[in-house]
Structures are given as structure tokens and as C-alpha cells.
Design goal:
Layout lengths: L4 E6 L5 E2 L15 E6 L4 H9 L17 E2 L4 H7 L3 E2 L3 E6 L5 H16 L2 E5 L4 H10 L7 E4 L4 H11 L4 E4 L16 H18 L3 E5 L12 H5 L2 E6 L6 E9 L7 E7 L2 E4 L3 H5 L10 E8 L2 E13 L7 E4 L3 H15 L6 E7 L11 H13 L7 E3 L2 E2 L5 E2 L4 H11 L3 E5 H6 L7 E5 L2 H9 L1
Parallel strand pairs: 6-10, 6-11, 7-8, 7-9, 9-10, 15-19, 17-18, 19-22, 22-23
Antiparallel strand pairs: 1-2, 1-3, 4-5, 11-12, 12-13, 13-14, 15-16, 16-18, 20-21
């Protein structure tokens, strides 16, 4: 056997050094270097031999079947994936512990197995008995779901070659190790090498692979960033223990729309699909209460009606506080400055709190007008008409800019029952029809405030 090579690797970013360093020169992390050993082995080559080697070929000779996807039967998951699972794709799912990653995957495997045949569920964290307990709670029982409690990558790949499943799940990548590397499971080297080998296996065998990844305290997937570059699709589970629903968001997708979301509700019988999320977000909206405004926002191809709340109170400290949940902190500070300069609201001595109801995180600039309106409503202590909604991007000079997909936003609001809309004048000029709404086009923030609170 060849002599093992010893090196030191940063466990935060994967930077390698021949000697130990106190501070990583790449990411700046302190005391993150750990000693690791790597020994090259030829065992994996036998697995590649089972599935054959690829040969160079001209582009014109490559054939593919349009629309060849595996439908999971869970509409929200299929939506996020872009219409189903693409053969040979590698899908990474991350999220906080206990948020529902394993529950969603075993529910998806149950439906896939009924239609397509054998599926393989590899668990390095739970025993088959523990997985069976969860399956019984979800009323899942199938001979086509093969459980494999294993952490050795070589054993997993040999099982996949022999079983030839339609879909394989690895839960989780941090527990899997390859014998070619002598470092512990979960280290940067192990995570990177195992993910790369799973990707190679998936492409050569045309087998879709789901990989579950742990997340760090900051909410990012643990391990090197290269892990997200290797896979085809990256999905994040969002949500918290205070809410019963979960949001599955695609942040990378080579076969579909990015930032697409699927919404689920956690129940005793597993994750349930939410077919009309707008009604869910507006379910407990207060009537005739100041500091509440509904905004039409888009996530991927889906339009959502979301309530934004604010509370403006006289500060009791020397420095007024600005607190935001669900929207960008710096963006809110910018909009507060616009209100002070262009509308004349004196917010310098006020504490301002802004919250997106339901825990949804919005990064789209079309919610700017909603934030402006809800802060003005709380400051003036005047409720916004419950049948009114807004959308639009606000510039530093107080102008309101047009946004994309205006007609889809108006259709969604009309379907739910809203009667009045305040939108950018640029969108107002281009829309065809009123969708049963009383629509007002505004050019600047001052005009918007006058229309809503007059």
C-alpha cells in the first residue's frame, strides 16, 4: 500500500496547508485546522467498472427524452424541482434538525415506489427500526422501499449497483465516509470526496440521488462550499418551531426555476401540501388595526399575498431601535430615510419594528411600497383599508418603480377577494383590464400616502 499523506485542512472552507495554522488565510476562521490523512485506493474503480465508462461523443449524437422526469406525486416538491426528478441528477436538501427533511423524503419515496418500483433509503444516523417507527406514524409500508443502515460509501455504491433502484436517498452526507481517506466522517475531505463520488455514480448510472446535509449555526449547509457546486439542485427547508408550516426553497436548480418555493404544513401524519398559501398567510390578519398592509410578492413562478406588520413607538433609549424579521434590515433603514426626507415623517426618535407575518423571508424589492405603507400606518395610527393591497419598488428619490409580473399579482389578489390596488404608474400603463379591482397608479411615495390615508 502507498504511504499515507498527512496535511492540515480548514474545517470551515476546505483550505489545505502542509502545516498547522492558527488562522485560515482563505476564510479567516481561527483554530479551524485539523490534521487529516489521505491514502489512494483502487476499490472505487471496481464500482465504476460495473456501470461502464463514458466515451467522448459529438453533441449532435446525444439523444434525450423531452420531459423525462420522475414525478414524486407531491405537487409542492415537484414544483420546486421544476416538474419532477431528472434522471441522473444529484439533489442536496439542507435544513435545521427536526424540520422535516427525512419525513419529506420518505413520503416521496413511498409514492415513487408505488409507481416506479424499488427505491433505496440509506441512513447513517438511524437504524432500520427507528425508520420503521417513523414510517408507521406516516402510514407508510412498502416492500419496494429498501432500507440500508450503512456509512461506508463503497458498500452503499455496491448495493446500488446490485439493486438498481429508481431513486436513492443518502441521509446524511456528514455520516458517510470513503475508505480512500483516513479522516473522520463529516470532515471537509470526507464530505467533498463522498459527494463527488456520488455525483459521478449518479451521472454514469442515470440514478437520481437525494443528499441530506446538516446546517451550521449560520443556517448554511455544513461542509465546503464546493458541495453546493457539485450537485445539480440545492433545496433549503425553512421554518421554525413556532409555526406549523415549512417552506422548501430552491436556491440552485439546473433543471428549473431558481427561488421556487413549496409550502407544507407539519402535522401528526407528516407533511401536508398547502395548495393556497396566500390564504394561510392572511388567515389571522387583524381587521382595522394600524400597521398592517398586504403585499403581492412573487417567489419563483408563484404569487403570494403576504401581510407585513410594523410597530412605530417613541423610543425610551438614546438610540432608536430598528428591528426587522423577514425583510432586509438595511432596506428598511433606507425606506425609513425616504419617509423622513420625502414625506416629512419624523421617525428619528422612534423605534421601528417590521415583521413579515408567518416567518416568510422576502428579498424581492416589490415589497418596498408595502413596508413604506405599513410604517406610515403605524406612525399615523390609521388602519389601511382591509381590501387594499400594494406592490412596487421605491427609489431613493421617492419614486415608485415598476416591477415584473404585475398582472399575475393582480390576478392572485382578485382571486382571494381584494378590491383595491395601489401599484406603480409604470405597471398601471401597461396592464390590460382591471381584473375586477379598483387600481390606482402612483409615481412617488407622497402620492401613495395621500391616496391610502386620505
Amino acid at each position: 500500500m502507498s504511504k499515507a499523506k498527512t496535511f492540515f485542512q480548514c474545517q470551515a472552507c476546505g483550505y489545505m496547508s502542509p502545516k498547522w495554522l492558527g488562522k485560515c488565510p482563505d476564510c479567516g476562521a481561527w483554530n479551524s485546522f485539523a490534521e487529516e490523512k489521505k491514502e489512494i485506493s483502487s476499490r472505487y474503480s471496481s464500482v465504476v467498472a460495473h456501470i461502464g465508462k463514458s466515451e467522448p461523443k459529438p453533441l449532435s449524437s446525444v439523444k434525450h427524452e423531452t420531459g423525462k422526469r420522475i414525478i414524486t406525486g407531491i405537487n409542492e416538491l415537484d414544483r420546486v424541482l421544476g416538474g419532477g426528478i431528472v434522471s441522473g441528477s444529484v439533489i442536496l436538501i439542507g435544513g435545521d434538525p427536526g424540520i422535516g427533511k427525512s419525513t419529506l423524503l420518505i413520503q416521496a419515496l413511498s409514492r415513487i415506489s408505488k409507481k416506479h418500483g424499488i427505491v433505496l433509503y440509506v441512513s447513517g444516523e438511524e437504524s432500520p427500526e427507528q425508520i420503521k417507527i417513523r414510517a408507521d406514524r406516516l402510514s407508510i409500508n412498502s416492500d419496494n422501499i429498501i432500507l440500508h443502515a450503512e456509512t461506508s460509501l463503497e458498500s452503499i455504491l455496491h448495493s446500488a449497483v446490485n439493486l438498481r433502484p429508481k431513486v436513492m436517498v443518502i441521509d446524511s452526507i456528514q455520516t458517510i465516509y470513503t475508505e480512500e481517506i483516513m479522516s473522520a466522517p463529516g470532515s471537509v475531505s470526507q464530505v467533498r470526496e463522498c459527494a463527488a463520488k456520488l455525483m459521478l455514480f449518479a451521472k454514469k448510472s442515470d440514478l437520481p440521488v437525494f443528499i441530506v446535509g446538516h446546517v451550521t449555526k449560520e443556517g448554511a449547509i455544513a461542509g465546503p462550499r464546493v458541495l453546493e457546486h457539485i450537485v445539480d439542485t440545492v433545496l433549503y427547508f425553512e421554518g421554525d418551531s413556532g409555526h406549523s408550516y415549512r417552506i422548501l426553497r430552491a436556491v440552485k436548480n439546473r433543471f428549473g426555476s431558481v427561488n421556487e418555493i413549496g409550502i407544507f404544513e407539519m402535522s401528526d401524519s407528516g407533511l401536508l401540501e398547502v395548495e393556497n398559501p396566500s390564504e394561510l398567510f392572511l388567515l389571522e390578519r387583524p381587521v382595522n388595526a394600524s400597521g398592517s398592509t398586504v403585499v403581492a410578492t412573487t417567489e419563483g413562478t408563484r404569487t403570494l399575498m403576504v401581510e407585513i406588520q410594523s410597530l412605530v413607538t417613541q423610543t425610551t433609549f438614546g438610540m432608536p431601535r430598528r428591528t426587522t424579521i423577514g425583510v432586509d434590515f438595511n432596506r428598511v433603514n433606507l425606506l425609513i430615510a425616504v419617509l423622513e426626507k420625502k414625506v416629512g415623517m419624523h421617525l428619528g426618535g422612534m423605534d421601528v419594528f417590521v415583521n413579515v407575518v408567518g416567518g416568510l423571508k422576502i428579498i424581492e424589492p416589490s415589497v418596498d411600497l408595502g413596508i413604506i405603507t405599513t410604517i406610515a400606518s403605524s406612525f399615523k395610527n390609521i388602519p389601511v383599508n382591509p381590501g387594499l393591497f400594494v406592490f412596487g419598488e421605491v427609489g431613493l428619490s421617492g419614486e415608485i418603480r415598476a416591477v415584473a409580473q404585475a398582472e399575475n399579482r393582480l390576478k392572485e389578489a382578485s382571486k382571494i377577494g381584494f378590491k383595491t390596488a395601489v401599484i406603480p404608474y409604470g405597471n398601471y400603463q401597461k396592464i390590460r383590464g382591471d381584473f375586477g379591482l379598483q387600481i390606482s397608479g402612483v409615481k412617488n411615495v407622497q402620492e401613495c400616502i395621500e391616496i391610502i390615508f386620505s
